[in-house]
UniProtKB/TrEMBL annotation:
Phylogenetic lineage: Bacteria, Bacillati, Cyanobacteriota, Cyanophyceae, Nostocales
RNA-binding protein Tab2-like N-terminal domain location: 4-114
Domain of life: Bacteria
Residue span(s) of domain RNA-binding protein Tab2/Atab2 C-terminal: 131-282
Signal sequence range: none
Protein source organism: Nostoc paludosum FACHB-159
PANTHER family xrefs: PROTEIN TAB2 HOMOLOG, CHLOROPLASTIC (PTHR34556:SF2), PTHR34556
InterPro entries (alphabetical): Tab2-like, Tab2-like_C, Tab2-like_N
UniProt name for this protein: Tab2/Atab2 family RNA-binding protein
Coiled coil regions in record: none
Length: 286
């Protein structure tokens, strides 16, 4: 299987000699399973003068990253929607699909580390916060009728259990090393299992999205939402009965204790020993 990259191309809290913001491209490889070693993932960083901020410069930088990595990724994820046109154009010129996504866990951690340890050491550093990328969110959408699960349940596994995920039979899925989320092996990781006779088409459809995280929404009525892309949201279930309401509250509490880590699984029935889909997720604030 090929690799997936995460990139950020944006200004940094550094001024050049002309008092203009210095820009930077960060490229890092996405982990795909729980056994991936973080220090084995490809990374590339390059500063960009403010006078050269365009898709052509970014395309050249990405080509250099590809040369260093030895091969191009299958796709590139990015979380800054305001950079959509420039990033998409640079990636298209290289023949690589670009996807807005909140599934940029390695990139988020690397950017935070550079904010604390790298940029303050640069000449021209200007202390400040990382610009927010929060955007107005559309209303949650209903799942396509043909893809609605017949049954779902809140469950949990330990982090140690999830470390064995690469050995499971999974048709569609993705994960990351739990060491990145700073959870101990005995930590209880909450999750949701969806059961459907159309489990494989449902999991295949989900795999075409950029899965971000699950959340219990209580703004109007209690609903289980699947957040995807940068702003998209899907209604997995309406929660009305008292017991599922209590379990939903427990799910969010457990997720908080696990540093936002949780999972989503899709199976044909509760007795199935394989998964049509299984994704390890983490809710993080961008």
């Amino acid at each position: 299987m090929g690799s997936i990259w995460e990139i950020d191309f944006y200004s940094r809290p550094i001024l050049d000699t002309n008092q203009k913001k210095v820009w930077e491209v960060l490229v890092c490889e996405s982990p795909l399973d729980t056994n991936t070693k973080a220090d084995s993932l490809f990374r590339y960083a390059q500063y960009c003068p403010s006078t050269q901020v365009n898709s052509g410069w970014l395309r050249t930088a990405l080509q250099e990253a590809i040369n260093q990595a030895g091969k191009a990724p299958l796709k590139i994820r990015f979380f800054r929607r305001q950079m959509n046109n420039m990033i998409t154009k640079a990636c298209q010129d290289l023949g690589i699909p670009a996807q807005p996504s909140r599934r940029t866990l390695i990139l988020n951690q690397w950017l935070e580390q550079r904010m604390q340890e790298v940029y303050p050491q640069e000449a021209g550093y200007q202390e400040g916060t990382n610009p927010s990328v929060r955007l107005e969110k559309p209303l949650p959408q209903r799942l396509p009728d043909a893809l609605e699960g017949q049954q779902w349940v809140f469950v949990s596994l330990t982090a140690e259990d999830l470390a064995e995920m690469p050995e499971w039979e999974i048709a569609f899925g993705e994960a990351f090393p739990l060491e990145l989320a700073k959870v101990s092996p005995e930590t209880r990781i909450p999750g949701v299992l969806i059961f459907s006779p159309r489990a494989l088409p449902l999991a295949g459809w989900m795999s075409g999205l950029e899965l971000a995280f699950l959340k219990v929404d209580t703004n109007q009525e209690t609903r289980l939402l699947l957040e995807t892309g940068v702003t998209e949201s899907w209604i997995l279930a309406n929660i009305k009965k008292s017991q599922p309401l209590a379990e939903a509250k427990g799910f969010e509490e457990a997720k908080q204790k696990a540093n936002g880590v949780h999972f989503l699984g899709v199976q044909s029935n509760p007795q199935a020993e394989s998964f049509a889909g299984f994704w390890l997720l983490q809710e993080v604030n961008l």
